[in-house]
Design brief:
alpha/beta, Nucleotidyltransferase, domain 5, 9 helices, 5 strands, about 15% strand
Amino acid sequence: MTRRARIIPIVLKAIPSNDCERAVHARGFTLIAGVDEAGRGALAGPVVASAVILPPSASFLWLADVRDSKRLTPKKREELAPLIQTGAIAWSVGIVPSEVIDVIGIAAATFNAMRQAVKQLSKRPEYVLVDYFTIPRLGIPQKGVVNGDDSCLSIACASIIAKVTRDRIMRELDGNYPGYGFARHKGYGTADHLECLVKLGPCHIHRKTFAPVLSQELE
């Protein structure tokens, strides 16, 4: 009996390129911002967005290490963040806290954070590339790029800035609300976090309208 060879799939890690930016440059736009968010799915803390404008012909050596923030270690994100901030033409962040998320909903809060980030850039972008979505009421030409944080260099840079910024906020909030482990899980719904939530109940920075937190509020 002939044994079939076992086929092991090879998973290639996505490497962002500036193909999206080059395509937009070819249409006559120069200042192109990449936008992404962090914290959309968390149970506590703010949602944070970042906007990053890279130089059109950026050739920094560190760009080869840029990936979607979720594909990088915390140490690597912390190393890349200041390099991105120094090398970018402009960068900024927008932050919407948990109490606002509970009032307007996470989708609207995410778009608010993204609009903040774009509007707070020191240089007004001529075009905006956004991870997956387009931003309502932005007033600037834009495109939503599916899997943009994996494929588009400026969006990947924005994902790193947003993630590093939010992680630092959550570490600070851990000191204000001890016992929940925010410095460890950053407010996401890990088993550790849910156990603390059951034990201690929700605190001020929990998103009271999110199901796991809401169920504790109703008990």
